[in-house]
Amino acid sequence: MNNPSASLPSVAAARPAARRLSDRFADWLPKIVLAPTVVITLVAVYGYMIWTALLSLTNSRILPVWKFTGTGQYAKLFENERWGVAVENLIIFGVLFILVCLVIGVLLAILLDQKIRAEGALRTIYLYPMAISFIVTGTAWKWLLNPGLGLEKTLHDWGFESFSFDWLVNPDMVVYCLVIAAVWQSSGFVMAMFLAGLRGIDPDMVKAAQLDGASMPKIYRRIVLPSLKPVFFSAFVILSHIAIKSFDLVMALTGGGPGYASDLPATFMYQHAFTRGQMGLGAASAIVMLGGVLAILVPYLYSELRGKKHG
Amino acid sequence: MSSIEFVKIDKVYKGLANFHAVKGVDLSIRDGEFVVFVGPSGCGKSTLLRMIAGLEDISGGDLYFGAKRVNDLTPKERGIGMVFQSYALYPHMSVYENMAFGLTLEKAEKQTIDQKVREVAAILQIDHLLERKPKELSGGQRQRVAIGRAIVRQPNVFLFDEPLSNLDAALRVQMRIEISKLHQKLKTTSIYVTHDQVEAMTMADKIVVLNQGRIMQVGTPLEIYNTPANTFVAGFMGSPTMNFIKVHADDNHLTPFNGTDRQVFEAPFQHRGDATLGIRPEHIELTPQPGALAINTEIAVVEHLGNETLLYLSTDQCELPLVVSVQGEQSPEIGSSLTVYVPPSRCHLFDANGDALERLDAPKAN
Amino acid sequence: MVKSQQTFGQQLLRYGLYAILGVAALVYLMPLWVMLLTSLKDIEEIRSGTLFSLPGSLNFDAWSKAWSGACTGSTCEGIAPFFGNSFKIVIPAVAISTLIGALNGYVLSMWRFRGSELLFGAMLVGCFIPFQVILLPMARMLATFGLANTTTGLVAVHITYGIAFTTLFFRNFYVGLPKELIAAARLDGAGFFFIFRRIVLPLSTPIIVVCVIWQFTQIWNDFLFGVVFSGGDTQPVTVALNNLVNTSFGGKEYNVDMAAALMAALPTLVVYVLAGKYFVRGLTAGAVKG
């Protein structure tokens, strides 16, 4: 706003000028309110990201040493066998976890959508693991999968003498234990997302397909599921996000073991940065993780924003 | 109460591409006048209203209430009462609290507040609803509360932002009359934004027709109807919309462009070159008139509205079907041919820019 | 669906449907049930019976030991003190992050200014980043301010990385409120904070519930920040539980482990059962958008 007359020195203008100062303050108030969050975000998200990125270019061990040594830590990281195992585990774990969660989630959602009598109760049961900490989940499944006393012994006692289930201590199979526990925890959530999606579908569309003579399975396959594509998309992004960040579950269920057979990048980073005095390497692994997340998120956000603009 | 003066008011929304929403608006509103801003959506009428209220900054120009420049005053300091399209009643407050809210903020005495709220509630016949929450009210009742909330602070200016568009047709007519009656009683300067031309025609002392951020015409309802200033106003006001026929003018001789029969007819205008002839559907005659332009047509569609019948006639004289409004019930056969007559006395003529040409037989002063 | 005489086949299908859903429910409930059974048995019963065999008598020894006697790393005072720590962290962190989120959301929906949408987008990144990327600098920062290994430090960390979510919740909720409400209040002479307190906040109850529940579950269940930024006697219950389970002197006491795990899960489970509707809404809102 430009008001040249207000700057004239006169008694009459003094009052409006004072009031206009308070007006200006009122104009700034929203920005002032938002400022702390902006500062916090700039420092604790972007600043720290840069801090870690810079640290990954140094040879820091127990304490940060600000002497840049180039990309040596990354070279070391990709040669590190333990990192290789962690990445391989993440791929196996991530793919299986996402696939199984999607299949179970979609199936349960479709089955629950058939005007089931106890729907509310069933939904509550399928979803409750989501309210629990991954540490509790890990503790519970560690006990269930215990080779000596868990499900194996139970089945032996029930007469299946030859049943053998030692995945938790088998380096080749331990990653599947992570999948089982993680699916138990998260599949109900996928179900909830798809159920919400199904409820959002225009019932007239289904009626129209019925009038066209399509059978129910066909209606689901050809009409309902394709229209849930955005839900698939969101679920995929969220699940992959959970997978990449998975840390608690590994710590509680396997501790990364046996040996480092069930390490994931998140545990690798924690071990090296905080317990093994390999700060530079830990920082490099964190930056690689960030890259992985961005590789999934950026296309997602891009399509979301674009969809909003054109939709 | 207050007169309002707009001097070269501008509104630009800054962004990647600046959007010039209001362009150089000059307008005087007399104290106590009921002015209606009308125009298609996006014409800037609501932006203008919000600038008066102080809800939008004014990008350029000066706005005066009386002799006082109000550009830099806060909404509250301008003394505005506003009624919104969505009513904007505070959902968690009772009707009484809604109406008292502004007075409470002014730190008025409880007794004064109570007295004013009850007085206004009585005028609007909502005194029995004072303890209810907005969600327990019907659309019409909410509308009254919204008006009551605006009245209770005795504002200098009343602003109405499409207040009736959420009501059903019958209620809309009723509220329209009530708002007019209320204005006659309170005589507060009022500005009313609508896209409904019936509301504009029936309620306004003065209509301001806006398009693309500019004023197209200012005038009384009848001036707007009888002497539209340009093709935009001519086409926007009036239902069904005015018929336009491209003509070539040679002084007072007009020749329609299209059509096989190049008949020339005389109309009271003085112009040379291309022009557009306008004729309202209700002014086209079915019987031969002396000096009228005769147009041969074929009946394409007939719409029966009960009190009138609309004939959509295809002709080679203009691209759009020619619309004719006929009193009463008529049932001509579709596809049959019909000759209609455009009387020169009812014609409008617009130049190539779309601006109206003055009638030579027009009385000099209205 | 058209109401019609159901054929035998359709009825069979219906039973099959219920059977599948019922079995699935049992599978989901099984771990909780086994935890409960195990926590009520003594070690001998655990060794001799199966996972599903019922305890001979209701025996709460494991529960009392888990609460006040079990060893969690260096101390042997059970998880009770850590349970307290978790509340000491959760309550201020939830309250403050919710309040900041509400104010931010209010600004970002009702008082937008040039560039505010960009700031919002920049903030949202905080919802997505893998926290590994901020652990090291955050640890340094907390040490610098003398907040390392304190509950105050953890509260600060949870607020810092929680406000992106809380802002998202409130902003998306407030965008749905009619803007004219704010315009009307401004004409009535109300200012920024007055409108917030008297108009916006009274209308925010549902989103406050969603946000509080979301933040409560997130922060209560957090392990990563807890294990990195807390030490010794300031650990939250999740870290203590992990220590309890993974450090054992002598024989493993599975019943104590399970009792401790159930206790750690109890607060969020109670919230879930009491306010499941809001919990799901938070999940889908936080998830679909973020």
Question: If you had to describe this structure to a student in words, what would you say it looks like?
Answer:
Chain A folds into two domains: 52 residues; 239 residues, MetI-like (MetI-like fold, Orthogonal Bundle). In chain A, 72% of the residues lie in helices and 0% in strands. Chain A contains 13 helices and no strands. In chain A, α1 packs across α13, α3 packs antiparallel against α10 and α5 crosses α7. The longest helix of chain A has 45 residues. Chain A is flat and about 70 Å long. Chain A starts with 10 loop residues before the first helix and ends with a helix. The N terminus of chain A is likely disordered. Chain B is an alpha+beta fold. Chain B folds into two domains: 228 residues, 3-Layer(aba) Sandwich (Rossmann fold), CATH 3.40.50; 111 residues, OB fold (Dihydrolipoamide Acetyltransferase, E2P) (Beta Barrel), CATH 2.40.50.140. Chain B is built from nine helices and 17 strands. In chain B, the strands form four sheets. In chain B, strands 6-7-8-3-9-10 form a six-stranded mixed beta sheet, sandwiched between helices. A four-stranded antiparallel beta sheet of chain B has the order 2-1-4-5, covered by helices on one side. In chain B, strands 15-14-13-16 form a four-stranded antiparallel beta sheet, with no helix packed on it. In chain B, α3 crosses α4. Chain B is elongated, with a radius of gyration of 24 Å. Chain C is 74% helix and 0% strand. Chain C has 290 residues and is mainly α. The relative contact order of chain C is 0.14. The longest helix of chain C has 32 residues. The mean pLDDT of chain C is 86. Chain C folds into two domains: 52 residues, no CATH class; 210 residues, MetI-like fold (Orthogonal Bundle), CATH 1.10.3720.10. Chain C is flat and about 75 Å long. The chains are: A mainly alpha (311), B alpha+beta (366), C mainly alpha (290). Chains in contact: A-B, A-C, B-C.
In short:
Chain C: The chain crosses the membrane at residues 12-34, 89-111, 118-139, 151-174, 195-216, 258-280. Chain B is α+β, with helices and mostly antiparallel strands and 366 residues long.
Largest sheet of chain A: none
CATH hierarchy: architecture of the largest domain in chain C:
Orthogonal Bundle
Largest interchain contact: A-C, 90 and 91 residues
Strand content of chain C: under 5%
Radius of gyration computed on alpha carbons of chain C: 24 Å
User: What would CATH call the class of the largest domain in chain C?
Assistant: Mainly Alpha
Provide the structure class of chain A.
mainly alpha
**Count of discrete structural domains of chain C:** 2
Count of discrete alpha- or pi-helical segments spanning 4 or more residues of chain C: 14
Weakly predicted, low-confidence segments of chain A: 1-17
The overall strand count of chain C is 0
Q: Kindly report the average pLDDT value of chain C.
A: 86
Give the domain tally of chain A: 2
- Record field, number of beta strands of chain A: 0
Summarize model confidence as the mean pLDDT of chain A.
84
**Strand composition percent of chain A:** under 5%
Report how far apart the termini of chain A are.
35 Å
Tell me, what's the shape of chain C?
Answer: flat
The general outline of chain A is: flat
- CATH level-3 fold name of the largest domain in chain C: MetI-like fold
